[in-house]
Design a protein that fits this description.
With about 180 residues, the protein is mainly α. It has helices spanning about 5-20, 30-35, 40-45, 50-70, 80-95, 100-105, 110-130, 140-155, 165-175. The protein has two domains: about 1-45, Arc Repressor Mutant, subunit A (Orthogonal Bundle); about 55-175, Tetracycline Repressor, domain 2 (Orthogonal Bundle), CATH 1.10.357.10.
């Protein structure tokens, strides 16, 4: 792919992610205009909005997979891996703001991939509980839900906090609470 075509694709995917997160009915024409490309540029690559949305989902899942690998959830000490995961996933969530739950309803392949990623994180959180970093008596899924909420809020509400300090606050809140 030529460099300008790659830049255009990147602009379309990221603009599409942002606009479709704000309004799922956003038109391809609006995405093209905001991305600074001609509408034909989008249609050469994507037959319709659903195809673009599918590509955005795949890109978000690809980026999340890179984070899970880079965090070293199975090899690094739990606290280190947790911080690394949070620090890396916040920018991914900011860059690809589409809600994973919506993605899973619309794309069976995305659902399968997201479920595999969630399972990797669940195994890691069980390890954190086994090693005493989080409580073992929590209802099933509670730690995952809490971590997801903290990350989501940091990524989309507290956008002015850089990923490193954001990860510090999320990990401290997750492991020690706020009071």
């Amino acid at each position: 792919m030529r460099a300008d075509a790659a830049r255009n694709l990147d602009a379309v995917l990221h603009t599409g992610a942002r606009l479709l997160a704000q309004d799922p009915a956003t038109t391809m024409a609006a995405i093209a205009a905001e991305a600074g490309v001609d509408r034909r540029t989008i249609y050469r690559r994507f037959a319709n909005r659903e195809a673009l949305l599918s590509a955005v989902y795949a890109a978000k899942l690809d980026a999340s997979e890179v984070v899970l690998d880079a965090a070293r959830l199975t090899g690094a000490p739990v606290a280190v891996a947790l911080h690394r995961y949070v620090e890396l996933i916040i920018p991914v969530s900011r860059r690809w703001p589409l809600d994973i739950r919506r993605m899973m309803k619309e794309e069976p392949e995305a659902e399968r991939r997201a479920e595999g990623q969630r399972e990797r994180l669940a195994v890691f959180l069980r390890r954190a509980a086994d090693e005493g970093l989080i409580r073992q008596d929590l209802p099933p899924g509670w730690a995952m839900a809490l971590l997801g909420t903290l990350v989501d809020n940091m990524a989309h509400v507290f956008v002015d906090i850089e990923p490193g300090p954001a990860a510090d606050l999320v990990v401290t809140s997750f492991l020690h609470g706020v009071g």
